[in-house]
Design goal:
Two copies of one chain form a homodimer. By secondary structure, chain A is an alpha+beta fold.
């Protein structure tokens, strides 16, 4: 089991019993999603932007327009942090204090650089689309060079990271279990609804199998 | 219609046609959720932390332990930004470039201060719980003074803000509509599953009506 070394950046202080530094566990959290929250600093403010991503080994890839303020800013700073969170349940205790949520979150710290090789950029854009919907890229119109030229791809190398996971029931004060108060969990899940075909499809174009598979596995 | 004045902080550059500065519209996005992403700066890194929140007028309230590094940091900096995002659909175009998501997001900029009055703190904690699950606080064991003392409540005043909304179908290149490629939306929704009562409930305690109502309106 490979772990990130704990330092002042990634050491979890509050709820340290929920902290995870194991790379495989953190990668499982990252690979369960396709939307991350990227931080950048502008005019002294820390600003958070939701972005699509893909992971390969210890790299997270982001992309956007060549004028994207956030991407240009993290490239200039050469570092940032990225957070991914999945909400799993509302935890409703007998007292307000013990209310919580079940979740899986990871915070990554690392450095950023621009990907300049066109073949590498193209492969990463393919991976970002396929992270959103598996096996989707091969069904699309091939990318034009001018589209590639209009896109920045940023490679973020994970230097250190931590995750926090809460995956349990209600934890109330011992004496509160005697109270006639309901407590429990409400599980929360992000689901897909049935795909809606574009109005302007050519006649005879059916919803492809990989899209139906996505819906079946996310409904 | 009250709008936030556009300045360099909140002006949306990329996808400016999707930008919204209208306060009522932004409040609708904020009131549709209970989890926000708060930025803070630590050791030069912008770090993003997911947090529960409640809104009242132009204030966003956060809370946490008196040792919470993020809350202490934004109180010291006296300012931060907060992002809320709701994902509504995957937008699957005929080309990779036009892939997108439908979403509603708001980014708020403002200043922070600690709430010190106990009555005000208690009312805010009640509102944070009721923002997660409406009408829930009244069913709980009353809060102890020592619990209030262990909790920091931060008041964030929205000084400026912007929202971005995408709520439409696929927008492909004109010539790509002739291609025999499927395109469309996969709607995405966050849902609640049936409540799971705590194993240790006293005999005869049923799931309360407000919890059943929550499930019915979020399933």
């Amino acid at each position: 089991m490979q772990e990130f070394e704990k330092n002042k950046l990634n050491r979890v202080k509050r709820g340290a019993n929920r902290a995870v530094y194991d790379k495989e566990h953190i990668n499982t959290i990252l690979d369960a999603g396709f939307l991350c929250y990227v931080g950048y600093i502008y005019d002294g403010y820390p600003i958070t932007i939701p972005m699509a991503y893909a992971r390969k080994d210890d790299k997270i890839y982001l992309h956007g327009s060549t004028a994207n303020r956030m991407l240009l800013s993290i490239l200039e700073a050469e570092k940032t942090s990225i957070t991914v969170m999945h909400l799993d349940a509302l935890v409703l205790a007998r007292s307000g204090l013990h209310h919580s949520v079940n979740y899986r979150s990871a915070t990554l710290f690392g450095h950023c650089k621009k990907v300049v090789d066109d073949n590498e950029k193209a492969a990463i854009l393919e991976q970002i689309v396929d992270t959103m919907v598996p096996n989707h890229w091969q069904s699309l119109r091939p990318m034009y060079q001018k589209e590639l030229d209009r896109t920045i791809v940023v490679e973020f190398t994970i230097e250190t990271a931590s995750a926090k996971i809460r995956n349990e029931g209600v934890n109330d004060e011992l004496e509160d279990y005697e109270l006639p108060i309901w407590a429990g969990l409400i599980p929360i899940k992000q689901v897909a609804l049935p795909p809606i075909s574009d109005d302007k499809l050519l006649d005879g174009i059916e919803i492809p199998q990989h899209i139906l598979n996505y819906y079946q596995s996310h409904k």
